[in-house]
Amino acid sequence: MELTRGLLIIWIAVTLLSQNSSNVEGRNHFHKKQKNKRPPPKVPSPQAPVSPSPAEPPPVPSDPNNPPYPPPAPSVPSDPGSNCIFDVTAYGAVGDGSTDDTEAFREAWKAACQVESAVVLAPADYTFMITSTIFSGPCKPGLVFQVDGVLMPPNGPDCWPKSDSNKQWLVFYRLDEMTFTGSGTIEGNGEQWWELPCKPHRGPNGSTLPGPCDSPALIRFFLSNNLVVRQLKIQNSPQFHMKFDGCEGVLIEKLSISSPKLSPNTDGIHIENTKYVGIYDSVIGNGDDCISIGPGCSNVDIEGVTCGPSHGISIGSLGVHNSQACVSNITVRNAMIRDSDNGLRIKTWQGGTGSVTGISFENIEMENVRNCVIIDQYYCLTKACRNQTSAVYVTDVSYRNIKGTYDVRSPPIHFACSDTVACTNITMSEVELLPHEGELVDDPFCWNAYGTQETLTIPPIDCLQDGEAQSTAESSAYGC
Ligand SMILES: *[C@@H]1O[C@H](CO)[C@@H](O)[C@H](O)[C@H]1NC(C)=O
Ligand SMILES: *[C@@H]1O[C@H](CO)[C@@H](O)[C@H](O)[C@H]1NC(C)=O
Ligand SMILES: *[C@@H]1O[C@H](CO)[C@@H](O)[C@H](O)[C@H]1NC(C)=O
Ligand SMILES: *[C@@H]1O[C@H](CO)[C@@H](O)[C@H](O)[C@H]1NC(C)=O
């Protein structure tokens, strides 16, 4: 029964595909297989992710007119309006946790891509292992990639196929109206990547050794619009868990992301060059930024997020290598940050231009957080960065109802603004932070920061200057 239905779906899919191979990825794929030519076509953008490169030629026959699966006899009219399910097990996925199921996922994707509102299903009670894969569009709208079982990459650098990019694992590329969801788990198998001797303190005797250190981001969305990511459990990523670049319209909700506190560079959600993003009702614990917002982001709304352990919610770093960065209209509300190295952070490098403007942090609870509120315009990884005269301009930043406890190893409030480009219009209202343990740190730090306190801040800050800065950037917001 189950098998018959699966075969039927495959047959429909194959028929559709051979009748209407408008999908570029699919077409390329078939050409590639027919000519058995390698390497596969590169994705057509200089910034594009590295192309998928299966180490072995696929074992299945390749002629689309001669599908590898026996086409069933009955002719059923296809109904692209209904939710067609493309179950990867019907495409040969084994799901025993060790068999390489990559080809089955690619075939299921390729078929589903042709059908409106199709579902690529990785069913419950299976553990699928696939290698680095780019799931490309354009596809028909409404495509759903649903993981109800476990989906994971090869276990660690030694098992990573040499021909695959080690900078990314799952990539979703050039899609519109796509949903990534499921009741299952994306298991990153990150442990061996975190232990590479090049990672901080992972060499012999706690040293850090030089050498290439690339580790894959687990899930990447690239040049795609109107995305929904919902409900999944995503854990133990080798590097960033989830990354969005060049996207517009992203809704993330009810996610659970977790990696250990000491896993290096495992940012939870990173966005850059991405606009109109909502991140809601999610729980993130990891070894780096909980959420990081890079250059080119605007209209980002974050609400109901719990972070910890983590490095907090971060805007930046911005302006590296004298680049221009524009970030605007970011709201973070009703969030909880606990056991974190930073709370709410804006970090920019010396040099650089652009601006960070219209940032609102409201109703944030802190528990045992270092640097609860920090603007750092001297961000530098080597401690050897020269001071420069240009800087990303930080303005219109408000902190309202920020309460809780801080880790006394660093002051809870720290505004280190550029010497030449002051931070302006910082509003503080009901910011009340107490030591988690030990003595009050009574010296909040401010340098070249202007703004107002609507209520008395705890600990008191007397360094936030009233009035206009002497040397503020032009109101053109520094080129943005
Ligand atoms: C690590 O430290 C121990 C004790 O200090 C020393 O004997 C050993 O040689 C060190 N190993 C390396 C690889 O540096
Ligand atoms: C700010 O972003 C929100 C979405 O988070 C959007 O609804 C709103 O219109 C934006 N405001 C401005 C002034 O662009
Ligand atoms: C850069 O400027 C800051 C603020 O004036 C100062 O504290 C710091 O020592 C300077 N750093 C260098 C490397 O000159
Ligand atoms: C200061 O920033 C707030 C947002 O925090 C904004 O509403 C207000 O217009 C800004 N004031 C000035 C004088 O730019």
Automatic annotation (TrEMBL):
Active site positions, chain numbering: 311
Keyword list, A-Z: Cell wall, Cell wall biogenesis/degradation, Glycosidase, Hydrolase, Secreted, Signal
Primary site of residence: secreted
Region annotated Disordered, chain positions: 23-78
GO biological process: one example: cell wall organization
Record family assignment: Belongs to the glycosyl hydrolase 28 family.
Protein name: Pectate lyase superfamily protein domain-containing protein
Species whose genome carries this gene: Nyssa sinensis
Lineage of the species this protein comes from: Eukaryota, Viridiplantae, Streptophyta, Embryophyta, Tracheophyta
